[in-house]
Structure formats: C-alpha cells, structure tokens
Write a structure and sequence with these properties.
Blueprint: E1 6-10, H1 11-25, E2 31-35, H2 37-41, H3 45-48, E3 57-60, H4 63-71, E4 78-80, H5 89-96, E5 99-102, H6 105-113, E6 120-127, E7 135-136, H7 140-148, E8 153-159, H8 172-182, E9 189-191, H9 195-200, H10 203-206, H11 214-217, E10 221-224, E11 251-263, E12 268-269, E13 275-276, E14 281-286, E15 303-306, E16 309-314, E17 322-325, E18 337-341, H12 347-353, H13 358-364, E19 371-374
Parallel strand pairs: 1-19, 2-3, 2-10, 3-4, 4-5, 5-6, 6-7, 6-8, 8-9, 9-10
Antiparallel strand pairs: 1-11, 11-14, 11-18, 12-13, 14-17, 15-16, 15-18, 16-17
Bound molecules: pyridoxal-5'-phosphate.
Length: 378
C-alpha cells in the first residue's frame, strides 16, 4: 500500500468559483484573467485549466506554461505577468500570440528593435507603491507616449498591482497616486484588481482610472486578475471574509493515523519536546509532515480534523509525521481519516495558525503527495 496521504483537487469547485467571480464583476462588464501561476497555485495547471475555460484569459509567469496551454488547445488570451525575461523570448510571444507585461526600459527598447511577424498586446505596468515591478508613475505619460509609437505594439493596457488591498485594506493612497499620474493617459483598458481588490475595492474596476471622454467611456474595459479566490481561499486569511460569495475550497489534503500513543503526565511529544502532557492523554501520529508541504511552523494547537472531529496538533511537525490530540475523538484509532485542510477545515484557518497564508500552503504541496482530481460536488 502507498503511504496514506493524498490531496484532492475539486474540479467543480474551480468552475464554481470562476462563476462566482463572474457574477461579482459582470455588472461592470469586466473581463477575467484567471491567474494560474505557480502551477495553478499548486493545483496542477495541465489538469485544472479546462475547468476554468469560461475565463477570458489565463495569466501566468512561465513561458513553458503558456506553451503548454497553447498546445493543449487554449486559443484565447494568455498574459505573462512578469513580461519577458530575455529579448529572445519575444519570438515565442510572437509565435504563440501571448500578451506581455512590460515593466522596464530594457523591455521597451527590445520591442523597439525586435523583428516580429505581427505586433503584440502589451500591458504597461506602473509602480503604485509596491516597488517591485513597474515604471515610475510620475513618468506614466512619457512612457505611454513612447510605447504608443512602437510599431511592434498593437494595443496598450494600463496595469498596476496594489500592495495593501488585503492587508490593511486601504489602497486610497496607492490608487490616488496612480490616478493622479495616469489621468491624461488615453488608455481604454486597465487592469488593477487582484482578488482583494475584486472583493473589497470595486470602484477600482467599475470606473476608468483616467479621464476618458464620454465617447470612449462606453469602450472602457477592465480586466480583473483573480487568483486565490478561484481556489476558494481568502486574500486576507480570514475565511469569513469570503463567506458571502460561497466560494468552495479547491484543494483538500487527507491522511490517516499511523499509530496511537498513550502519554502519561509529564511525557513529551516530538523533536525538542515542545509539548508536554499534564495528564494521561491519547495522541495520534499522522502520516503527514513538512516534506509533504505541511507547514513546519504550525505550533501546538493548529486545527486538524480526525474522523471529522476538530482537534489540534501537538508538538513540532517533523518531516514525515505530526502528532494530534485525540481527547475530542476517543474512538479514533490506527487508520482513522485525518483532514489537514479542505472542505471541512478551511486552509485559511490552518495557515493563520501557522503564521502563514493559504497561498503558501497550496503552492508548497509537495511532489511526493499523490493528487486525485474529482468532478463531483464535494
Ligand atoms: C498573483 C497575482 C495576482 C493574483 O493575486 P490574488 O491575490 O491571488 O488574487 C494578480 N496580479 C498579479 C500581478 C499577480 O502577480
């Protein structure tokens, strides 16, 4: 028998979540880039993209992933979120008809000098305060004019990515900064909204950032960029924040109890003896550790389900195992099913207890964990 750990990807949940995003943004006529970077947030790009095929486009980072989608038959837009990495990449962008972010001078120069078969769609990225990628907002007008003159560019979309849409929830300064600097840019398309903006800052995608004339207003188009919400988790780590939308978790992780121990008062558990029993106590040993992608930082008290009963981890997580308290589930025994996260235990709650975010847990699911893909309602 294989080791009893396995992950399940709920394909119908992905489809359901995309529909929920569509419902949310459709009154603004927004289009959707489904963000599938990092192997679709750990869910497996090659297997899951078809559940999201009602999207308007896929956004990702790696050219290989873009080629994979094209080879599997996706013909609609693909956006390279970090743009191209080397000038040579432009040949593939041309060949596979990809939309690319342009965030730096060298990329504009490369486009000025390239010999392409046809012009490409470009997302000009401006830095609204994250200070990772993007042209300085103060130079927005000048950069836009320069880009507009490049024959290899077909159409320009104005793009930015906010630093605080989820965290302190206040993007007023970032938004105002980019609005002030981009007012005079004749963009008819913008893309500013990740999941947190979609959820909590709808004015960003319901009205243009610049002063479009009434004539052009009817052509205004916003492309939202949902990632985490498609996978059924919350951008701010709080599961109640996404309750209203009825998002469904797309990933669950299950294992079993490999062993049961009965501790005496004073006995300790795991490396470093971080947990000490103060009375007799039954504990279970779960076949899941940090080499499976479970967070090693998860402290004693991290929520976990045994036979559907909520309990907690005890002591340090080791490479292949972790320990759980069996007090709330006295009937649990070797072979009992354990849910590490999933439909009955939000990944957000586990991430929160471990001092991280659901994004990291999804992406960290390790290659040694077998994944099954199911399409039922569960
Ligand atoms: C990852 C990413 C997104 C999606 O963010 P979520 O918080 O997962 O919705 C959107 N835009 C850019 C530029 C990204 O890198």
């Amino acid at each position: 028998m294989p080791r009893p750990i396995s992950a399940t990807v709920h394909l119908s949940a992905l489809h359901h979540n995309l529909v929920a995003v569509r419902d949310r943004v459709s009154y603004a006529n927004s289009k959707i880039w489904s963000v599938v970077k990092a192997n679709a947030y750990g869910h497996g790009l090659a297997r899951v993209w078809r559940c999201l095929e009602k999207t308007d486009g896929f956004a990702l980072l790696d050219l290989n992933d873009a080629v994979l989608l094209r080879e599997q038959g996706w013909q609609k837009p693909i956006l390279l979120l970090e743009g191209f990495f080397k000038t040579e990449d432009l040949a593939l962008i041309d060949h596979y008809n990809l939309t690319t972010v342009v965030h730096s001078d060298w990329q504009l120069a490369a486009l000025e000098n390239a010999k392409l078969k046809k012009p490409v769609e470009v997302y000009l990225k401006f830095n609204s305060g994250m200070n990772r990628l993007g042209f300085p907002c103060e130079e927005a007008h000048e950069i836009w004019q320069r880009a507009k003159q490049i024959a290899n560019i077909k159409h320009l979309t104005l793009m930015s990515h906010f630093a605080n849409a989820a965290h302190n929830g206040n993007i007023d300064n970032e938004y105002r900064f980019i609005q002030q600097n981009c007012q005079s840019i004749p963009a008819d398309c913008s893309s500013l909204a990740n999941s947190a903006v979609i959820l909590w800052h709808p004015s960003v995608y319901t009205s243009p950032i610049n002063n479009l004339s009434n004539n052009n207003l009817s052509h205004f188009c916003h492309w939202v960029r949902p990632g985490i919400m498609l996978y059924g988790a919350s951008p701010n780590g709080q599961v109640q924040a996404i309750k209203d939308l009825g998002l469904r978790p797309a990933m669950s992780l299950h294992s079993e109890l490999l062993a049961v121990q009965t501790l005496k008062a004073g006995d300790t558990v795991g490396y470093g003896s971080h947990y000490r029993a103060n009375e007799a106590q039954r504990i279970g040993i779960v076949a899941c550790g940090y080499a499976d992608g479970y967070p090693r930082n998860a402290p004693t008290g991290t929520p976990i389900l045994v036979e559907g009963v909520l309990t907690k981890t005890l002591g340090a997580v080791s490479m292949d195992m972790l320990a759980v308290d069996l007090k709330p589930c006295p009937h649990a025994q070797v072979g009992s099913i354990v849910e590490l996260w999933g439909n009955h235990l939000p990944i957000d709650d586990v991430a929160m207890a471990a001092g991280t975010i659901s994004y990291e847990l999804m992406c960290a699911l390790s290659a040694r964990v077998p994944v099954s893909f199911i399409t039922d309602g569960e």
